[in-house]
Write a structure and sequence with these properties.
The complex is a heterotrimer. Chain A is mostly helical. Chain A has 3 helices and no strands. Chain A has one domain. In chain A, about 85% of the residues lie in helices and about 0% in strands. Chain B is mostly helical. Chain B is about 75% helix and about 0% strand. Chain B is elongated. The termini of chain B are far apart. By secondary structure, chain C is mainly alpha-helical. Chain C folds into 2 domains: about 45 residues, no CATH class; about 110 residues, no CATH class. In chain C, strands 1-3-2 form a 3-stranded antiparallel β-sheet. In chain C, a hairpin with a 2-residue loop joins strand 2 and strand 3. In chain C, helix 1 crosses helix 2. The chains are: A mainly alpha, B mainly alpha, C mainly alpha. The interface between A and B is large, with 48 and 50 residues.
Chain lengths: ~90, ~120, ~160
């Protein structure tokens, strides 16, 4: 049981490195923001698996708060981006 | 029995997250990346949350996970919509493989109309 | 009327998150919901509150939920196929779709469900026209793609929210 959950946790953390690759290499700013948005959703999955693994259930509350905060952050950045141009 | 379903849903969730991240790396431009990433990663995380609801049944944890699913759905779709619109008005062109762009006329019209008053330039000081 | 519905929804949300029915907990939730309603109730349009009492709409909502989950699963396998294929069969473009819906809530729900269905993501809504980014543009005939993109959900959503 524990072995299986550890494997899933490491796989999920490994997926974050794909997002980090896109954040570092992204040719434009919107590319990076898409990767940050996806990173935020992946962290919720990590929170859930961690909660089952360590048997501390308050971590799910952190996950729910993380969804809302990531949503607000992405929305703010997208609004900011909408007012700018590429050649400014 | 519930343990088996829990494991299967968890594996499906991580697998879909993996597909979404592969799409984030491989696809050519922002819009396609956003498509693959939003769909796959949202459903993958929903599947992980659903596995939690299956494992704990109708209890504090299970209900919390079920409440988080619609929240995640609306948050992800609205964020994707805002990102597409923001990156289009930022000036990112569609990729080389694109075949049709019917939004261009409307965007040009809006840009010409708002030429003399750019939002946020005057009142920021 | 709309404020009462909003208050009850917020209270249910609070009870689902805290999962205890002691008197102190319900009182705290009611106070928090009341403050939220006082501050943010004025942003609701309230054009749809009367439709909450018509039972036929709930039946169509359940049917819509089933269709939506099925389309969602199909979307994921579709994206997985396109991503894992060595040559990546994509042909992206932005198309224009005319909507036959009237209320704002129905349009918003339709745009959200188009984002989660196979290969489409909604870009902008201008009046009654929805611009949709499509990962594989099948045809250039407006009548055909209109049906392909929006036709699956439009009849359900029209019956639920209009």
């Amino acid at each position: 049981m524990d072995q299986f959950l550890y494997i899933m946790l490491y796989l999920q953390i490994g997926l974050c490195f794909f997002c980090l690759y896109r954040i570092i290499r992204g040719p434009t700013i919107p590319d990076r923001m898409v990767a940050i948005d996806i990173f935020g959703i992946l962290v919720v999955g990590i929170c859930v698996i961690l909660a089952v693994l360590t048997d501390r259930m308050f971590i799910i509350d952190i996950g729910i708060a993380w969804i809302i905060l990531s949503f607000i952050g992405t929305l703010t950045l997208a609004k900011y981006l909408g007012g700018k141009r590429l050649n400014d | 029995m519930t343990d088996v379903i829990f494991r299967i849903l968890l594996v499906i969730g991580v697998l879909f997250n993996f597909f979404g991240c592969i799409g984030l790396i491989r696809l050519p431009d922002v819009y396609n990346r956003l498509q693959s990433a939003t769909k796959c990663v949202t459903l993958g995380t929903c599947s992980i949350l659903l596995s939690l609801a299956v494992k704990y049944g109708f209890s504090e944890i299970g209900l919390k996970a079920l409440v988080a699913i619609p929240l995640l759905f609306f948050a992800a779709t609205v964020a994707a919509h805002a990102l597409v619109k923001g990156s289009y008005s930022f000036g990112v062109k569609l990729g080389e493989q694109s075949v049709i762009d019917e939004y261009k006329d409307h965007a040009d019209q809006k840009k010409n109309a708002g030429q003399d008053e750019i939002p946020g330039k005057e009142d920021t000081r | 009327m709309k404020n009462i519905v909003f208050f009850i929804t917020l209270l249910i949300f609070w009870l689902a998150l805290t999962f205890s029915v002691s008197a102190a907990n319900i009182l705290t939730g009611a106070a928090a919901s009341l403050i939220t309603v006082l501050f943010f109730g004025k942003y609701l349009t309230g054009e749809n509150t009367g439709k909450l009492l018509q039972p036929a709409r709930y039946f169509w909502f359940l049917l819509f939920l089933l269709v939506f989950i099925w389309e969602c699963l199909r979307a994921n396998f579709d994206v997985a196929y396109r991503v894992l294929h060595p040559r990546m069969p994509i042909k992206p473009g932005i198309v224009k779709v005319e909507l036959g819906l009237k209320s704002d809530l129905a349009k918003a729900i339709l745009a959200n469900s188009i984002t989660m269905t196979p290969g489409t993501i909604s870009v902008d809504l201008v009046g009654n026209v929805l611009y949709v980014h499509w990962i594989y543009v099948g045809s250039f005939d407006p009548a055909v793609y209109q049906n392909k993109v929006a036709g699956r959900f439009e009849k359900y959503i029209g019956r639920i929210f209009d």
